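Quick start: what a row looks like.
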Amino acid sequence: MEEAPAAPRPLPGLGPKTLAQVPSRARQAVVVTGRGKDSPLSTVALYERTAAGWEAVGQSRPAHNALKGWTDHHRAGDLRSPIGVYTLTDAGGRLRDPGTRLPYDRGSGFTATGTGFEGEPLAGSFDYVIAINYNRKPGTSPLDWTRPLGAGRGGGIWLHVDHDGPTHGCVSIARSHMKELLLALDPDLHPVVVMGDAKSLAR
């Protein structure tokens, strides 16, 4: 009797409710796994879909998310990152394009100033950014402030350079890892980000 072919490997750590939100055409997924619902600490890992299922590309990286953790219903100023699956279509930064295949908007509008929640300088945080398509219009600069769900639902949620502290709602990783991610993402593979605390993602 012939053995049935093995089922393709799913994205690790994700439950049926989360997996159902991943578009069938997505071939790249950035998975952001928060340590806890109220924690600002998380990890980021990139996966690509193959004939055998989802496979990790490189290692998991440490990251920060919002100061107060995660939420299923993000509101402007709640200091929580939105849980969900969102497409990634646009990038930008203060520094020149490192060679990403995503549309890249360079400009002084990405200059970060001031200090973070732990007194750390924010300078350089937006040297490289990837817009997360939460409450924004895909196909525009990350600096476009169009809010389809209304201003009250927040926005401006990005992947950006880590400043060694919690964010207002974004996800941040080390500069070298941001550059790696920008070079890896391919719009032809319809990349998405899957983000939330581990317990929520496992639903």
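That is the whole record. Residues 45 and 71 are 20 Å apart (CA to CA). The mean pLDDT is 96.
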